[in-house]
Write a structure and sequence with these properties.
The structure holds four protein chains of four kinds. Chain A is α+β, with helices and mostly antiparallel strands. Chain A has 21 helices and 51 strands. Chain C is of the alpha+beta class. In chain C, a hairpin with a 2-residue loop joins strand 9 (about 140-145) and strand 10 (about 150-160). Classes of the chains: A alpha+beta, B alpha+beta, C alpha+beta, D alpha+beta.
Chain lengths: ~1000, ~325, ~190, ~100
């Protein structure tokens, strides 16, 4: 009743009425409708405004190539801009709003742009808006930016989930029209693993849009029957609502499945959309073809659409855009539209065919040799002007015009590997390139076989070929007989003399713009595209590119294949960014690594910090502490006074075993390891081959053929990779085996004067921890708590008497609790990464800020560690003169001259009295902190010839953060420079 | 920067230089220290830089995911004079300017070889004939290896594929350029409304000018990490371009060992934004046979001598830059 | 006997079990694990040692084998042995004795967390997690793959039973990924 | 891309980390008379061919093998895949 343009028949379910709104007004449609078909059913032709001129626009197509009918779909945080009405499945409660307008759709204030179209031609940005110089950014650009763009986003976080997944198949068939269905049936029956994917929600392609006889049934019934068989085969996966968006290397395809877009919102736990990565041994493109328009003056009014789309609306959705329609065509296919609509009871005003020998009809008028030269109707088509063969002009009233300029094969995926489509004179269109992606074959209209029977045959034959190549035994299908029309087309792109005739309806590119580009010598297709923005809209030029090329060909006097065509790039249709990201969003952006003491630390109220993938306790606030600095100072002081405990599990740990383990480490580290005694640990510095410090750590020798190497937390992965490179590529004959044990051991640093006493309470009594039997840098396999295997290392990052004790990770939680319990009598204090950092700066240990990818052993004050007596990675190139200059940066300590001044990291250093600029830069602060032990700020810095400048006063500047005061160069060892504490 | 700022009037062509600022997000204390150092270095070199607090960032960019993130935003380093330029317009503007100054621009003309005699380069063989020249200046980003190979030169450069992406047109949301500091992602919005974004290299040598899915996914993960509002925005198109990745992340503007043959390349990701400065310094070298003050460090012999270039040091693996 | 109590990788005292649709997802904390890497030119002796521990045949690349003690291949001349922790806490020591210096053995018990998926049509879950070709993933298969950025070993026990070994420190993330995929699939 | 691993069969290249030109296997002898020049060439200079390229891929998310992959840099077609340790031994790298 309200659906005034609904016809009989079709594939909509009239028992299911769905309510929706468009710009606030309620409408009704049926299950099986798209938003476009439902709006047309309700007599709505005006759906959008164009990008630049804000011209009134209606629907042009019935598929994903639609340039005009785009909406902001849904509302609130789920608002989706630029959503095509032609691919939006109708659901109950759908909300659609028109976009890119100020005011209402029928009265858009921005339509004024249309009056200034002379000014806004192709390339207008580049030639105008420059003067005066300041005006572009301050005046013109803001105006342009406000006016530009299409839909708007909600600015709220997307509430829906996305998934990604992986599929494998023998044969991927892209498109489930006649060619795809015939191919799938052939391959499915032969037992191959088949994926049949189609972007539509009802499969069958053009079979649903045409009135075709397949022997004794209709084409659409054949599709239904075929699909039923395919769905029943366990080796065939039929994927509707799935767009294959790109052909990537080696048979990998990306595909987007719209899992929930046809629902009001996704079901709990279900994604909105899903990105599939499909691994296909073979693939077959059966993507069909897209009809193209003919350009004529004012060819963009609502009501003017592609003839094939008009047929789809009538046959599949039982909808007509108006009750009196005309058709403008240069080929036989256009006549089908008139025939089909006439059969549905729609009045046909006329068929205007440019060909003088156009086929005639007994049901309606055919104007052979005529051309549509203009149209009228402000917000929707009212009439067209026709140039008759004799030269007279006739005005014909009609509410809709179907235009058919021929069909372009959907070759997009075939040129994703940069193959250039090739001209096919027979159909006057570009077909697939000779060199497409390896493993991608083509059938049906996508290959230029535009008849239904040709598509069926082609699909079956190509599947047959693939099956044989993949080792299957195919049987031949008994294909139904159907339409096998000869193609008759007279290439015709634009009516002579037309100017404001739209080629690219979305980007408002007209014939005139192409002429202008030609005049300004932007004649190569790549330049034409960029200069006019032809084909660069969200429809990716699916209906527009061909016309632009053809007109450029005419202007340059070349044949179309000489002008050439641009290539297509993924994705085939615009694809939600969320889908590419899958579940890796928000807090789930990357997995989290938790230390063995994580649960315990949470109980203590620890504040955590991200260190790579790890979450580490940064400090442990206590009641009454209002500033993190208080907590950190307390942790540092308590550790230096008695004992502190820190989870150091995150350091990389690599088990190095084998007869040649020591030889191997000698090559990896710049310092020597061959002579390290069993039961001892040594600090090691690893260089990159170019002589830059890569990482540092310790290697503990547990047996003659067994070391445990530690790395920094940040470099655990890259150091392991580097060691595998050395083992497999450089020295493949060494007997060395590597395995990461970072995760296997929960490791705690126990540091401070009372560390030994505390540990003695948990280490089993048969292990003697005295300084004599377990001195500084000792290591051993021991047992704790009555027999649990553990490893003990006497190493110190804090500069205190310190140990690191490791137990198998499942006992890590119990171990931290036991250590804390045993430490009660010593006021044992847990400390986090901040206190750890303070203590290592106090001790002058280099860390990540110093090993920052620019420093050598020399810069770090460790030049003597680079052994000249052996070959190690980086040793040769670290000898280059530039790395050993007199003025090389050296690691030093800094303290403020005025003890109340801070020393912020990232500050630069200047000589007193020098100008403050880059040319006089003396170095920079790498790490800094407030030392609670010294009562003032301290820092590590890299200073030119720093080691010979002790006592010099430098000017510290940080213009970025506003600091400028004096600091003194001192030794980097602020605490216990002689190392008495750690040897105690 | 100043060359950009005066470019449009110099060329009488609107390259759409738009100084809407660039913001590098900070996600850790170590990163803040490193960015502080960098910001100070920028100021000491005469550029501008501004360290922004989390609060200011949240206020200016309310849609950024500051706290509900795997790597929360802890600040940002902003350069307010940074921004974007319309790349096609730059190329067209330069071409037009050069043309007007009497430069012959020959399109679709491939250099197929060098004519070298007695260690001196006399000219180039091309697909359209021989062209002699007193000085031959190579600047073919992406194809440096292929071109200089014709002069039997090997370079400290690999060619890699870097993908770039653009979204559908949207009403303005992003004022400037924003980069993600805990992953690989940058984004800005063009005057036409499309979001222009990208991230990491695909990571393998390639001249194929197309990328693969893993990096597309990685870039979009980065997008969603800082802009969860972009979930429903559609990616419209992807490209793969060839990048000259030098071994230390810095470019080379230098004479070669062949007399009369000069080289400018190895710009890694930075080539486009350095275009005016790169051309300026190259012209200086060509005119005077001496490196420009700003380009003294960008010479071939730095690898041999071990001369480090400040602020870099990414190692001899170009894919690690 | 020591008096420390192990916790599970998810941090609890007892293993977690989730039921959703036709799938049961369970944390399996009870494995003792040890890696075995053949020393140079000692692959044969190492394989013989593994066979002494697990039964008639050592697993080929991409497979697992064994009964009470099982082994799966992790790389060229590398395996991981697995056995019930309660009775084989010192699996790595036993392995060390068996290989007699022909291989390097490292305890890996604490390095991994294990989740088992039981139910019908597990392919619908797995295809959302990793690129394993489920059509050829049969009982006995063992493949290393990446699940949401985590490197995991995936073992097919039977058609309706899959074990996943992932890095223990990321057990919470991995569990979340598995549970989410199950909920999305069913 | 798909890399046909000699031991594991076809695997997605996303499981691998690319490690550059396979010439990195040929690390110079530190004691040769022109060792410094050789190391400079080794570390920095690249053929960077447009065509067949021998390169290292590390199966980081798999079995941790280094592979030598010969791949066309203009088409991404892969011609051969070998274990890098085998290649290194054949090229005479001794411990």
């Amino acid at each position: 009743m309200s659906q005034i343009n609904r016809l009989v028949g079709g594939q909509v379910d009239r028992d299911q009425t769905l309510n929706f709104t468009f710009d606030g007004k309620p409408y009704q449609g049926h299950a099986g409708d798209t938003l476009a078909s439902a709006l047309l059913a309700n007599g709505v032709r005006l759906m959008a405004r164009s990008f630049k001129y804000h011209r009134p626009r209606g629907v042009l197509t019935a598929g994903s190539e639609e340039p005009n009918a785009m909406f902001e779909l849904r509302d609130g945080a789920r608002r989706e801009p630029n959503t095509r009405a032609t691919t939006s499945e109708l659901f109950d409660g759908l909300i659609a709003k028109s976009q890119n307008k100020i005011g209402s759709l029928s009265f858009d204030f921005m339509a004024i742009n249309d009056q200034f179209s002379n000014f806004l031609t192709a390339g207008f940005y580049y030639k105008t808006f420059m003067w005066p110089a300041a005006f572009w950014e301050k005046v013109y650009e803001p105006i342009i930016r406000r006016a530009a763009g299409l839909g708007s986003i909600s600015l709220q976080d997307d509430p829906d989930d996305y998934d990604r997944g992986f599929l494998h198949c023998d044969l991927l068939i892209i498109g489930a029209g006649p060619a795809g269905l015939a191919a799938a049936l052939t391959a499915g029956r032969a037992g191959a693993q088949v994926i049949l994917a189609d972007e539509d929600f009802t499969l069958g392609g053009r079979l649903n849009s045409e009135r075709l006889n397949f022997a004794d049934q209709s084409g659409s019934d054949w599709a239904v029957q075929t699909l039923a068989e395919l769905v029943g085969l366990p080796n065939v996966r039929v994927m509707a609502r799935t767009t294959v968006l790109g052909a990537f290397d080696h048979g990998i395809y990306g595909a987007l499945e719209r899992v929930s877009d046809h629902l009001l919102q996704p079901a709990p736990g279900k994604p909105r959309q899903m990105l599939w990565r499909i691994y296909a041994k073979g693939s077959l493109l059966c993507a069909g073809a897209t009809e193209r328009p003919i350009a004529f003056e004012n060819n963009d009014r609502p009501g003017i659409m592609l003839a094939g789309a008009m047929r789809s609306y009538a046959n599949r959705w039982a909808v007509t855009p108006a009750n009196e329609v005309a058709v403008f065509t240069n080929n036989d296919d256009g006549h089908r539209t008139a025939t089909d609509l006439h059969a549905k009871g729609v009045s046909i005003a006329a068929v205007i065919d440019i060909r003088p020998d156009a086929p005639q009809s007994q049901h309606y008028e055919v104007i052979a040799g005529g051309q549509v030269i203009n149209s009228r109707g402000r917000l929707g088509l009212k009439s067209i002007d026709i140039a008759l063969p004799g030269g007279d002009i006739r005005r014909l009233s009609c509410g809709a015009l179907g235009v058919s300029g021929g069909w372009n094969p959907n070759v997009h995926l075939t040129s994703h590997h940069r193959g250039r489509p090739e001209w096919m004179p027979k159909i006057a269109a570009f077909g697939p390139p000779a060199e497409g992606p390896a493993g991608l074959r083509i059938a049906g209209a996508a290959k230029g076989d535009l008849s239904t029977a040709g598509a069926l045959r082609g699909g079956a034959e190509q599947a047959h070929g693939w099956l044989k190549d993949l080792g299957f035994t195919p049987t031949t299908l008994d294909l139904p007989e159907t339409e096998d029309a000869h193609i008759s087309i007279t290439p015709f792109w634009a009516v002579k003399g037309c100017k404001r005739a739209w080629l690219d309806q979305q980007n408002d590119v007209t014939v005139k713009d192409v002429e202008l580009a030609h005049k300004e010598n932007f004649i190569s297709v790549e330049h034409l595209k960029r200069y006019t923005t032809l084909g660069m809209a969200t429809d990716q030029g699916k209906t527009s590119n061909m016309g632009g090329l053809a007109i450029m060909a005419e202007l340059t006097g070349k044949a179309i294949p000489e002008v050439g065509t641009t290539i297509f790039r993924p994705p085939y249709t615009p694809t939600a960014i969320g889908a590419f990201a899958g579940r890796d969003q928000g807090k789930k952006f990357r997995p989290t690594r938790r230390t063995p003491s994580h649960v315990w630390a949470e109980e203590q109220g620890a504040v955590f910090v991200e260190v790579g993938m790890w979450l580490r306790a940064q400090w442990f606030p206590k009641e009454g502490e209002t500033d993190w600095r208080q907590s950190v100072a307390r942790e540092v002081l308590a550790t230096r006074k008695s004992v502190g405990i820190c989870d150091v599990t995150t350091l990389g740990k690599i088990d190095v075993q084998g007869a040649d383990a020591a030889i191997f480490l000698n090559k990896i580290y710049c310092n020597g390891f061959a002579k390290l005694a069993i039961g001892k640990t040594r600090y090691g510095l690893m260089l990159r081959e170019d002589g830059i410090a890569m990482d540092d750590g310790t290697a503990a020798r547990l047996a003659a053929d067994h070391f445990v190497v530690t790395t920094t937390t940040a470099n655990a992965v890259s150091v392991f990779r580097h060691m595998e490179f050395a083992r497999q590529c450089l020295w493949p004959n060494l007997d060395v085996q590597l395995i990461s044990t970072t995760e296997a051991w929960a490791q705690y640093a126990v540091a401070g004067p009372n560390a030994r006493q505390l540990l003695q309470k948990v280490v089993d009594p048969e292990f003697d921890l005295s300084n004599d039997s377990f001195p500084f840098m000792a290591c051993a396999n021991i047992t704790v708590c009555g027999g649990l295997r553990a490893r003990l290392f006497r190493i110190s990052f804090s500069g205190e008497l310190a140990y690191e004790i490791a137990v198998p990770t499942p006992y890590g939680d119990a171990m931290i609790r036991r250590l804390m319990q045993a430490g009660i009598e010593f006021d044992a204090t847990p400390y986090g990464t901040e206190a750890l950092g303070v203590m290592r700066i106090e001790k002058g240990h280099a860390a990540g800020s110093e090993l920052n990818g620019t420093t050598t052993a020399l810069n770090l004050g460790m030049a003597r560690m680079v052994s000249k007596a052996k070959d190690s990675i980086g040793s040769t190139l670290s000898e280059r003169s530039g790395l050993n200059g007199e003025d090389a940066l050296k690691l030093v300590g800094l303290r403020p001259v005025n003890f109340s001044d801070p020393i912020p990291a990232g500050s630069h250093l200047m000589r007193k009295g020098d100008p403050v600029d880059a040319a006089h830069d003396q170095g920079y602060v790498t790490s800094a902190c407030f030392s609670p032990n010294l009562g003032h700020a301290i820092a590590l810095a890299l200073v030119t010839s720093g080691d010979s400048r002790m006592g010099e006063i430098l000017r510290l500047v940080s213009p970025l953060t506003g600091f400028d005061h004096d600091v003194e160069v001192v030794s980097a060892h602020f605490i216990d420079p002689e190392g008495e504490r750690l040897r105690a | 920067m100043k060359l950009w700022e005066g470019l449009e009037q110099d060329l009488n062509y609107n390259a759409m230089v738009s100084q809407r600022g660039i913001l590098n997000l900070i996600h850790s204390d170590a990163q803040r220290d490193a960015f502080t150092r960098r910001g100070n270095a920028m100021i000491l070199n005469g550029a501008d830089a501004d360290l922004l607090s989390t609060e200011i960032i949240q206020k200016r960019y309310p849609f950024l995911n500051v706290s509900n993130a795997r790597f929360p935003i802890k600040g940002g380093l902003a350069q307010h004079r940074g921004g974007t330029v319309r790349h096609d317009a730059v190329a067209w503007g330069y071409a037009r300017g050069a043309d007007q100054m009497g430069v012959d621009i020959i399109q679709n003309c491939e250099v197929t070889g060098f004519r070298i005699k007695g260690g001196e380069c006399l000219g180039v063989e091309t697909s359209r004939g021989y062209v002699a020249g007193g000085k031959i200046a190579a600047c073919v980003a992406g194809s440096s290896g292929r071109l200089m190979g014709k002069a039997n030169m090997r370079l400290p450069i690999e060619s890699h594929v870097l993908q770039a992406f653009v979204s559908e047109g949207l009403k303005p949301v992003l004022p400037g350029v924003i980069t993600f500091g805990a992953g690989h992602f940058y984004c800005s919005q063009s005057d036409k409304g499309g979001l222009v974004f990208g991230g990491d290299l695909d990571g393998y040598n390639s001249y194929a000018q197309r990328g693969n899915l893993p990096v597309v996914e990685d870039v979009c993960e980065g997008a969603m990490a800082i802009f969860p509002m972009l979930g429903r925005v559609r990616l419209l198109r992807m490209w793969g371009g060839i990048m000259d990745m030098s071994m230390d992340g810095s470019p080379i503007i230098d004479r070669t060992h062949i007399e009369g043959l000069y080289f400018n390349g190895g710009w890694c990701y930075g080539g486009f934004k350095a275009t005016p400065a790169s051309g300026w310094c190259y012209a200086h070298l060509l005119a005077t046979d001496a490196p420009h003050e700003f380009a003294k460090a960008y010479r071939f012999d730095r690898f041999e001598k071990g001369l480090m270039i400040d602020e870099k040091g990414v190692g001899n693996n170009p894919q690690l830059h | 006997m020591h008096d420390l109590t192990a916790n599970t990788a998810l941090g609890g005292a007892a293993p977690r079990v989730d039921h959703h649709g036709p799938v049961i997802l369970s944390e399996e904390p009870g494995f003792a694990l040890a890696s075995v890497s053949a020393r140079r030119d000692r692959q044969r002796a190492t394989v013989l040692a593994i066979r002494r521990m697990i039964g008639p045949s050592a697993p080929k690349t991409g497979h697992w084998a064994g009964d009470r003690v099982t082994a799966f291949c992790t790389g060229p001349e590398q395996w991981i042995l697995a056995a019930p922790y309660d009775s084989e806490e010192f699996l790595f020591e036993r392995a060390k004795r068996e290989v007699k210096g022909n291989a390097s053995v490292t305890e890996q018990t604490g390095a991994w967390c294990t989740f088992d998926l039981r139910g019908t049509d597990l392919a619908a879950v797995m295809e959302r997690l990793c690129p394993i070709n489920m059509a050829s993933f049969k009982a006995g298969s063992a493949i290393r793959s990446s699940i949401d950025h985590l490197s995991c070993f995936v073992l097919c026990r039977t058609k309706n039973h899959i074990s996943i070994f992932g890095p223990r420190s990321s057990a919470v993330s991995l569990h979340h990924s598995l549970l989410t995929a199950i909920q999305a699939a069913f | 891309m798909i890399i046909n691993h000699p031991l594991l069969g076809p695997r997605d290249s996303a499981e691998f980390t690319y490690m550059g030109d396979a010439k990195q296997i040929d690390r110079p002898d530190w004691q040769s008379p022109n060792a410094l020049a050789q190391f400079i060439d080794y570390a920095y200079m690249r053929d960077n061919p447009a065509g067949a390229h021998r390169e290292l891929w590390y199966h980081e998310q798999g079995d941790r093998s280094f592979l030598v992959v010969t791949r066309d840099t203009t088409t991404h077609e892969i011609f051969s895949v070998e274990l890098a340790s085998d290649v290194a031994r054949i090229q005479g790298r001794i411990a």
